[in-house]
Amino acid sequence: MAGDETKREDRSCSQKVWRVILNNLLIILMIIAVIIGVALGLGLRDIWPPYEKRKIFFLKFPGDLLMNMLKMLILPLVVSSLISALATLDSRASGKMGLRSIVYYLSTTFVAVVLGIILVVSIQPGKKGSQIDKSGSAKKAHPIDSLMDLIRNCFPNNLITACFRKQVTEVDQFEVKPPVMTTTTANPNISTTMMPNYTEAASFFVDAPYVNGQAEGMNVLGLVVFSIFFGCILQTMGDKGKPLVDFFECLHHASMRLVTLVIWYSPIGIIFLIASKLVAMERPEDIFEQLAYYMATVLAGLAIHAFILLPLFYGIIVRKNPYRFMYNMLKAILTAWGTASSSATLPITMECLEENNHVDIRVVKFVTPIGATINMDGTALYEAVASIFIAQNIGVDLDIGQVIIVSLTSTAAAIGAAGIPQAGLVTMTIVLSAVGLPIEEITLILAIDWFLDRFRTAVNVLGDSYGAGIIEHLSRDDISAATAYALETGTNGNVTGNGSAAVENPTFIKDEYPTTKM
To answer: What is the pLDDT of residues 454-478, one digit of tens each?
Structure first.
């Protein structure tokens, strides 16, 4: 008898372990993928030198497929999520939710910037270590041009073009030859005159900015702004707007089913994305040694923000275990680390919030697309640290006023950064220009940026996720009121055949989506 009981206990224990493995199979596969990717990249470095571009190109191919599939889902998810969420929420509820989202994004971003400034001023990585080799080239950008591009892209002139192009201010130079006035006295009977002489003038070059509407890349910000206004208009139309609301609701459900298919391929793609980056690096040992203090400062700031400050925000406001919430977002965090793109990770972020953390689907559809576009905690911290690091390295002492300018411009620049790999390098020119630092000095950190970009992207996605949980908690009364109003009037939500309102409910909505658990 005792032996039978022992066997049953052993069988029960093994079943529990097996169940845990199956429930977390994708997370385990992603962790294994990261390890294999690092090992494969380091191993191939002994076989392929960095100049073997064609071999590296083929090595990256499975990773390119993953990036393409994730980016393919951005457009239908962003548009369908925002429009269906706003169209099925009462305008007062969505307005309060939007205000809370903006306050949260600005607060956490500014806190990240302040943390980064405290660390970089305390550690002073720019005054330590060996001489840093510069690599690559910096892209010229003017702060006012970047700001105007941000506003201009909020209102695209062509909605179809915004799906694959955005407007960017570029600068050309043209030669100017000003006239030099010379005296002509050929005829003494005629009074002296001043005539322009263009041949003797000293020419100079001037900048001529123009808007290039052919810049590659999806204008996500413009699509977000359009979707917000379009969803609000549909909400006011009642039954007349119901066919379009149903269409976008169906599009969202179909897109989420596609996410489930793509997410199982992600471990394979992550392996080759990481391996190809490691193989392509030139002299990684020297680079890591030269920038060790800088890397340590950035990573320490990101770790403190991700594991202490953001969980503290969530724990104080929601009064739930923030680390359990973080664990449930692990698939999205690992995908963000592997792809270095918060926009490409958006489908998986939404899936984890809905399936694992059971955040109200209306909040997820409203908050996460906006968060992936403008909430960049990790990028803001990185830009603040990088700017002051550059100043320290070239021997420029920033006063308290300039440090404040760095904090404000880093916050604003991070909001304007696109959710694509290494977008922070472009907006960092705004920060450098604001305090009079040479933009060319960005080349000091170019060699290691791809590596740090993965960590700051993971922090960006984690901040978006915590934001969805916090905003759902703060908006629970407004959501309940909107649900009650929809049930009473039948004007919002999904209307059934007999005309009654069937409002989405997070308690059963998760059953409508395919789960990634086996």
So the answer is: 898 999 999 999 999 999 999 887 7
Yes or no: say if 412 and 390 are a contact pair by the CB < 8 Å rule.
Answer: no
Q: What's the one-letter identity of residue 368?
A: T
- Indicate the burial class of 49 (C-beta count within 10 angstroms; 0-12, 13-18, 19 or more): exposed
A 10 A CB-CB count for 205 gives 10
Q: Are the CB atoms for 159 and 75 separated by under 8 Å?
A: no
DSSP state of 60: T
Mapping DSSP to helix (H, G, I), strand (E, B) and coil, where does residue 217 land? coil
- What are residue 168's DSSP bridge partners? 212
Determine contact, residues 439/323, Cβ cutoff 8 Å. Answer: no
- The mean predicted confidence, pLDDT, of the chain is 77
* Cβ atoms 181, 170 nearer than 8 A: no
Output b/e per residue, 327-359; b: 16+ Cβ within 10 A.
Answer: ebbbbbbbbbbbbbbbbbbbbbbbbbbbbbbeb
Name the pTM for this structure. 0.74
Domains located in the chain, CATH noted? 24-153+217-512 (1.10.3860.10), 165-214 (no CATH)
Q: How far apart are the first and last CA of the chain?
A: 34
Residues 506, 29: Cα–Cα separation, whole Å? 28
Coil, strand or helix at 368? helix
**Nearest CA-CA partner of 294 in 458, 148, 124:** 124
